[in-house]
Design brief:
The structure holds 2 protein chains of 2 kinds. By secondary structure, chain A is mainly beta. Chain A is built from 2 helices and 11 strands. Chain A has a domain of 135 residues. In chain A, the strands form 2 sheets. In chain A, strands 2, 3, 4, 6, 7, 8 and 10 form a 7-stranded mixed sheet that branches. Chain A is elongated, with a radius of gyration of 29 Å. Chain B is of the alpha+beta class. Chain B contains 2 helices and 9 strands. A 5-stranded mixed sheet of chain B has the order 2-9-8-4-6, with no helix packed on it. Classes of the chains: A mainly beta, B alpha+beta. At the A-B interface, α1, β1, β2, β5 and β11 of A face α1, α2, β1, β2 and β3 of B.
């Protein structure tokens, strides 16, 4: 009877004391880590009026079905293979401590004829085509389609603390303008740490 | 009498064992507390960020062993390099592209990301931490073993050609 009582007491103790889960989770905890680094990139200038650098025909006025470049050598001058600094309007100042990727997106226009981005690099009746290029790129084969969103990187693996110059190619819509008023868009250059 | 007592003992033991097993879902793993300010990490690399330029830190946040019901948080440090006070936008951003084995996120991921302050106003040369929280609902499906989303930081005072700085969040499910 004594043994029995001891056994019952032990059982009670087991029940009262929290039992260690026999099949409890053995996986690791969620971990959150970040590499000490910063991304510091600035772009200048922060604007571009198509056909306004040198001007073909009426300066600042865009003709339909025409390819324009943000090229200080000429608004309708194709950048060379390989692209040189002098053919790029924009300068990226980069003091990041990590290797970065640069991606450019060009959303649809607002106002005026509100041309939309074809996302194909080529124009259409009511849509424009756009590419981006940068120094050192083989323009004819290396230019990158600039979509309204989700573009491929214009520059991959840009070294830390290395500046770069870049530009935009714009092919205006093929149909005649109907509104006669200006249209605008906001181009965004995005910097991320490289993969 | 003895038999009954032994049966009772066996039953209680079995119940105790089951109670132990049932404790599993009630005790999810906890993540370590988020540091209040991350500039210490930036100083560790010995290369000081520029005071006169906008910058963010870190460039990448790696989340490992993530699962439905789990939470992860890490701040993005934003610096205003302008000489005037500027409003920034801090937002979830669907990536333009994903790296390596990481997949683009499901659209619902946007709802799992909480930005503590989406429009912080920063004084000239001010640096501020904005807490980002990733909280995956318990009933959410794991759509990929590894996936990525971005946190976008943009100075709202820019012109028509804007610069956007993004933190890549790289999530690995367990």
């Amino acid at each position: 009877m004594k043994k029995l009582l001891i056994a019952v007491m032990l059982v009670l103790a087991l029940v009262l004391v929290p039992v260690t889960p026999a099949f409890a989770d053995t996986s690791q905890e969620v971990s959150v880590t970040a590499t000490p680094a910063f991304i510091a990139i600035a772009n200048a200038p922060d604007n571009w009026t198509v056909n306004d650098i040198v001007g073909v025909g009426t300066k600042g006025v865009m003709v339909v079905d025409t390819v324009y470049y943000s090229n200080p050598s000429g608004d309708c001058t194709v950048p060379s293979d390989d692209v040189v600094d002098g053919e790029c309007r924009f300068t990226i100042t980069n003091t990041s401590t990590v290797i970065t990727d640069l991606t450019v997106n060009f959303p649809d226009h607002a106002g005026g004829d509100a041309s939309t981005n074809s996302d194909a690099g080529t124009n259409d009746t009511t849509s424009f085509g756009a590419y981006v290029y940068c120094t050192g790129m083989t323009y004819s084969s290396g230019k990158v389609i600039c979509k309204k969103a989700g573009s491929d990187p214009m520059k991959e693996d840009l070294a830390a603390t290395t500046d770069i110059k870049w530009g935009i190619t714009y092919e205006s819509q093929s149909d005649a303008w109907t509104s006669g008023t200006p249209m605008t868009s906001t181009v965004t250059i995005t910097a991320t740490a490289a993969s | 009498m003895k038999k009954i007592l032994f049966i009772l003992v066996g039953l209680v033991l079995a119940l105790g064992l089951m109670a132990g097993c049932a404790a599993y879902p009630d005790d999810p793993p906890k993540i370590p507390p988020t540091p209040a300010f991350t500039n210490g990490a930036i100083q560790d690399i010995g290369n000081q960020p520029p005071d006169e330029m906008n910058w963010i830190s870190p460039g990448k946040v790696n989340v490992a062993n993530f699962y439905p019901g789990a939470r992860a948080e890490y701040p993005v440090t934003v610096h205003n390099g302008n000489d005037t006070a500027c409003c920034f936008s801090v937002n979830y951003r669907y990536p333009d592209h994903a790296g390596g084995d990481f997949m683009l996120p499901d659209p619902e991921v946007q709802g799992w990301v909480i930005v503590a302050d989406m429009t912080p106003l920063l004084a000239p040369k001010e640096t501020k931490d904005i807490l980002i929280t990733l909280e995956m609902p318990e009933d959410a499906e794991i759509f990929a073993p590894q996936w990525e989303f971005w946190i976008s930081v943009m100075d709202m005072s820019q012109g028509q050609v804007k610069t956007e700085l993004c933190v890549r969040w790289l999530v690995t499910m367990r």
